[in-house]
Amino acid sequence: MVAPWDRRTAAEQSRLEAATLARWLPAVVTAAPFHAARTGAIDDRLLTDRRGLQRLVPARERDLLADGAAGATAVLRPTEEQVKASADDRVITGIARAIRRDAEHGKRDAIVHEYRPLQLHRGGVDGELLIASTRSDLDRSHRTGARAASVLGLGEDDVIVSAVAAGPTLAHLGTVHLATGAGLTALHARGAGADLAAVAKATTDLAATVLVVATEEAVELADTLRRARAKLRDLRTVVAYGPPLTAEERGAILEAFTGAGASSDLRVRALWAPDVGRAPWAECAEGGGGLHTYPDLEVLEVLDPLTGRVTDGDGDLTVTSLGWHGTAHVRFQTGTWVDPLATDPCPGCSRTVPRITGDVAPHAWELTVDLDGGERGTIDLRGIAAVVAGLDGIEAWRAELRGPDERVPRDRLLIELAGGADPGEAAGLERRFEAATGLVPELTVGVHPDEVARSIDEVGGVLADRR
Length: 467
Hints:
Layout: H1 10-31, H2 33-39, H3 50-53, H4 61-67, H5 80-86, H6 89-115, E1 117-123, E2 129-134, H7 135-152, E3 159-162, H8 170-182, E4 185-188, H9 197-205, E5 210-214, H10 218-227, E6 237-241, H11 247-259, E7 267-272, E8 281-283, E9 291-292, E10 298-303, E11 315-321, E12 332-338, E13 355-356, E14 360-361, E15 366-370, E16 376-380, H12 382-388, E17 396-402, E18 412-418, H13 426-437, E19 441-445, H14 449-459, E20 463-465
Parallel strand pairs: 3-4, 3-5, 5-6, 6-7, 17-20, 18-19
Antiparallel strand pairs: 1-2, 7-8, 8-9, 9-13, 10-11, 11-12, 12-14, 15-16, 17-18
Helix pairs in contact: 1-2, 1-5, 7-8, 10-11, 12-13
C-alpha cells in the first residue's frame, strides 16, 4: 500500500514521479505545440524519469509569449489518437465508461472534460501569461485546496472570510479552491476594486474563524477591523497570502490582530505559489517548516539562472506540472529566487514533502525598466546567459543596468564580452540579446578578460543593477 501523499518516503516519491513522467512527458511534447517544437529531436523513450526530464531545455515566460499570444501554445490540444496513445489509465477508463454509456457522444464529452480549457488565470511579471485549467484540472484544484486546508490545520467547523481581491489571479482562485475543496463555509468578501472595509462587516456577521489576506495588506486589514470594532473573538487563523513569512512579518501581523481584539493564541500562516502555478502551497499549522508542496502533482527544481543547470544552492524555482491537462508547464523557470528545497521531514508536522523555506523573491531576474518616451517595460536578465551559452570562445562576460543620464534619457543595458565574439558581428548579437532580454543593449566585444574580472569584483557579480 502506498502512503498518503504527504507521508511518502523519498524512494516512494521517486517511483511515483517516474511512473507519471513516463506517460505524461511524451503526451505533453506531442500535444502542446510549444513543447513539441522544442523537444522534437528527443526520443520519447528517454523521457521516462527526472533524468529524462532534465534533457529538456528550460523555458521562461518570455519564451512562451514570443511563441504565441499569452503563451497559449503551451496548452494541451491532443487529437483522439494522441489521447488513446498517451493518456493515463484514469482518463482511458473514464472515456471507456462514457462510450459504453453514451456511445460517440459520450467519448466527445469525456475528452472535453479532460482537455478543453474552462478557466484562465493571469500570471507572469505583468500578468500577460494566461494559465488554462480544464474541468478535470479544477477537480484537482479542489483536491489541492483540501490538502492546503489540512496542512493549515483547518477543520470542518471553520468559517473563512477572504480579503483577497477578486480577479483572475491564483491568489483569488486558489483561495476559492481552498474553501471549496475542504467543504468550508466561505465568503470572498472583497470584490474587484473594493477596499479592505468590505471585509469588516463580513468578519463579524459570519463569526469568521479564518481570515485570508495578502501578506502586504495584513497589518492594514487588522487596523481596519480595529477601527470598525469588528468582533474577532472567534478568529483562530490568519492566512497571509504570500511567500514564507519572516519572523518579523509574522510578529507584526500577530501584534496587529491581537491589538484589534484577536486572541494571543492566533496562528499566522502563509499560503502561496508562483502566480503561474496551479495550486498554492501552505505552511503547516505547527509553523516554521516553510511551504509544503505537492510532489505527486509537480516536479520542482532549482536551476542556476546563469547556466540553466540544476543546482544544490539557491537559484530559479522551476516547475514541471504532472498530469494537468490545461496549460502544461515543462521545466518552466518561474523567475522566483529561492533557497535550496528542504527535503527532510517537516520539523513541525513531520510531512515528507519538499518545502520552500527561507527567503523567496518572485520575479527576481525580471526587472522593470524605463524606456523612451516615459514608457515602462520589463527586462529578463536570464536571457543574457542564454545567448552567451550559444557563443563559442567567450572567456568572460558581465552585464549591468544603468539609469538615465544626460545623453540617454532611459534605462540602459550594458554588456561586455571577453574573447570569442567578432566585433563585426556586434549588430547581430545585439538583436539576439534584445530578443532574449527585452531591451536593446549597449554591447562591447573584445574586452580583456582581466578587465571583465575586475568589474565583476567591483559590483559583486556578473549581473548588476546600478540604477
